[in-house]
Amino acid sequence: MRHPDGLPPPLSDLDRTLVMGILNVTPDSFSDGGRWSDPERAIARGLSLWEQGADVVDVGGESTRPGADRIPVLAELDRVIPVVVGLVAAGVPVSIDTMRAEVAAACVEAGACLVNDVSGGAADPEMGPCMAEMTVPYVVMHWRGPSKIMSQLTSYDDVVADVSDELMTRVDALAGQGVDPGRLILDPGLGFAKESQHNWQLLGRLDVLQGLGFPLLIGASRKRFLGDLLAGPAGPRSLEGRDAAGDAISALAASVGVWAVRVHEVAATRDAVAVAQAWGRSWGPSLGMAREEDR
Ligand code: PMM
Q: What is the pLDDT of residues 206-256, one digit of tens each?
């Protein structure tokens, strides 16, 4: 497994797909909004994700659900800092899910070991210069605009080629601002300015995204395209009812060597990753894998 530069041990010693547990400290995220908005409960939830096997807990203070409004920076800081501090004090590896340089810098100062930016540096002109000063890995997600308007930004000629090109444009811009490309992780941003079929097309061509030469993070957990896939007569499948489909995606993503998966339910995801690892150690031509001795 190729890890991004700047990833601390013991994470950098792992030879498998990492599991990033989601902790949204927001009143309104689509998947878990309101459940962990009190810092004590949020810290307890983060510890529980870690005990279940999360390699890193991703703390986010601003909802990115379709149509969401931005919140003031102070409100975001108030939400995330106590939780980052509490989890770091307990020894939990923490990543900070933010589009703001000020929040990223404060959380890294508080001990976060990774910055996860759904805008890939496009939402805040200070993010590139800020990341150039840091040594932690940085997730650059494919993003076309704020959540408020992203459902109007879903026009692609060829979604795999377009997302690849747009991600590389961000990589070049960040490198131009002094960010070390060795620290970057790319993410196609499933569900962000994408309709269901776009997410499936991207998942079907992870080889193309991996060909860009960066570790890849995939966040499919509980997203609407899974609800659409599993829809019944009553409509899209409920959020919790999407977890088994998410586990299947985690197994398939791990089998092709994706660096990390970002999920709500950690224990089952760790099992899915273990299955993919065991499968990959034997002959698996149906998944396009080579035997270890043939690699
Ligand atoms: N999705 C959400 C939030 N942050 N970060 C990355 N890198 N990739 C994602 O796909 C992603 C993200 C929205 O989902 P949530 O509300 O369940 O956190």
A: 999 999 999 999 999 999 999 999 999 999 999 989 999 999 999 999 999
Active-site residue (options: 45, 79, 262, 270): 262
> Which amino acid belongs to residue 226?
L
Lowest mean pLDDT among 15-19, 38-42, 291-295: 291-295
User: How far apart are the C-alpha atoms of 221 and 244, rounded to whole Å?
Assistant: 10
By CB neighbour count within 10 A (0-12 exposed, 13-18 middle, 19+ buried), where does 15 fall? Answer: exposed
Those residues with Cβ within 8 angstroms of residue 270's Cβ, 6 or more apart along the chain or in another chain:
19, 52, 53
Q: Give the pTM.
A: 0.94
- 91 Rama sector, left if φ>0, alpha if ψ -120 to 50, beta otherwise: left
Among 23, 35, 64, the mutation site with the greatest number of ligand 1 atoms within 8 A of its Cβ is: 64
Residue 59 in contact with ligand 1 by CB distance below 6 A: no
254 close to 277: Cβ distance less than 8 angstroms? yes
Return the ligand 1 atom nearest residue 222 CA.
17
Angular region, 69: left φ>0, alpha ψ -120 to 50, beta rest: beta
